[in-house]
Amino acid sequence: MTPDAAVAGTTGPVVGVVGGGQLARMLAEAATPMGVHLRVLAAPSDEGAAEVVPDVVVGRADDPAAVRSLAASVDVVTFDHENVDHGVLEELEAAGVAVRPSLRTLRFSDKAHQRREFAAAGLPVPDFVVLDGTDPAADADAAGAFAERHGGRVVVKASRGGYDGRGVWMLDAASVGGFVTGWSGAPLVLEPRLDLLGEVAVLAARRPSGEVATWPVLETVQVDGMCDEVVLPAPVDASVADRAAEVGAQVAEVTGAVGVLAVELFVVAGATGPEVLVNEIAPRVHNSGHLTIEGCATSQFEQHLRAVLDWPLGPTHPTAPVAVMVNVVGGDAGDPRDRQAAALANVPEAHLHLYGKTSRPGRKIGHVTVLGAERGAVRARAREAADLLAGVGGSTP
């Protein structure tokens, strides 16, 4: 440890996290029992981490001076989100700072870059076209032709800045040209609207010395473009699970990932059976992996810390036959902490995780995980607990 990284009363490594949301909060919960000191750069808002992390530096992730100051006081820099100034990361890497994942990997957060690089590497991706906005009329023509080629139905994605269904639009051939002409933001990625058999995710962790560990394939359930539920194991054939794991490992290699990497995959009908296509990736711990906290031998958060510190990775096998996570999404019912006792009274086996965030419609403010033996029953119990916390009551079958 460098002298600047020393923290009074600690002798273990110091990990700096850029961003103070719920991912940083859960990294802190994993760091404490391992003797890892977390220092978090958090904006002055209710981001979640500041409520439980003693060492919070107030500053914005897009402020180069704040990021430089954090980097000078820690052993390794990692991230709660990808919205960081790339110029300062390039500068830090050139100075020998351990930035994990690297800027090379973080660039894959841009969907246009991601699609182009994955296609060039031979990874399975949907058909796509990137519109960079330099010639709106030509872009509109290209968008219309692409939509007609795919039955008039397309998905349009902003290459940067979208999450939880934001920055994604379902359009048809009649409307896509006008949308593209009027767009003035980041480049757009157009893809066909696919008929999905399902969606799965692969989580992989990689350390600088090359060791890789993956978790069992997960099923993800989306509602209005936002992850609503995650189920382990995914209800797919072994051949699909094996192919998904293979693609996940390839993505980790192509991106040069260090730490946890989440690979979201579409399952579609192919000529000889189900096939997987890369939807998108997140070069960090991810919502699809939250159930690993209770549902697997090593959580994604502990594993991420092990990986960025280049420590041996932990086992990833499930701890129960079935694990289900359901997100708690904000609404008009107020603070879910007011309903914790009711949720636990009805579902005492539930593991509740609340993020300390102000509740508002469409905002993830927590999650619930339930373990058990039978898929349908576990899903119903997790849903009941999440609904009670969200203030919408009752269980669903």
Structural class: alpha+beta
- What share of the residues does DSSP label as strand, in percent? 25-35%
List the uncertain runs.
1-6
Helix fraction by DSSP (H/I, runs of at least 4): 25-40%
Using the alpha-carbon principal axes, give the shape. globular
Task: Give me the number of helical elements.
Answer: 12
- Give the biggest sheet: 9 strands, antiparallel
From the N-terminal CA to the C-terminal CA, the straight-line distance is: 53 Å
Radius of gyration from the alpha-carbon trace, in angstroms: 21 Å
CATH architecture of the domain at 3-99: 3-Layer(aba) Sandwich
Count the E strands: 17
Main CATH class of the domain at 3-99: Alpha Beta
Element-level helix/strand string: EHEEHEHHHEHEEHEEEEEHEEHHEHEEH
Kindly report the CATH topology of the domain at 3-99.
Rossmann fold
The average pLDDT value, as a whole number, equals 92
Characterization of this structure:
The protein is an alpha+beta fold. Among the domains are: 3-99, Rossmann fold; 127-192, ATP-grasp fold, A domain (Dna Ligase, domain 1); 320-392, D-amino Acid Aminotransferase, Chain A, domain 1. The chain has twelve helices and 17 strands. The chain has helices at residues 22-34, 64-71, 86-94, 103-106, 111-120, 136-149, 173-182, 238-255, 292-295, 300-308, 340-346, 375-390; strands at 14-18, 37-42, 56-58, 76-79, 129-131, 153-158, 168-172, 188-192, 196-206, 212-214, 218-223, 226-232, 259-269, 274-282, 322-329, 351-354, 364-372. Strands 9, 10, 11, 12, 13, 14, 15, 16 and 17 form a nine-stranded antiparallel sheet that branches. A four-stranded parallel sheet has the order 3-2-1-4, sandwiched between helices. Strands 5-8-6-7 form a four-stranded antiparallel sheet, sandwiched between helices. Strand 13 (259-269) and strand 14 form a beta hairpin.
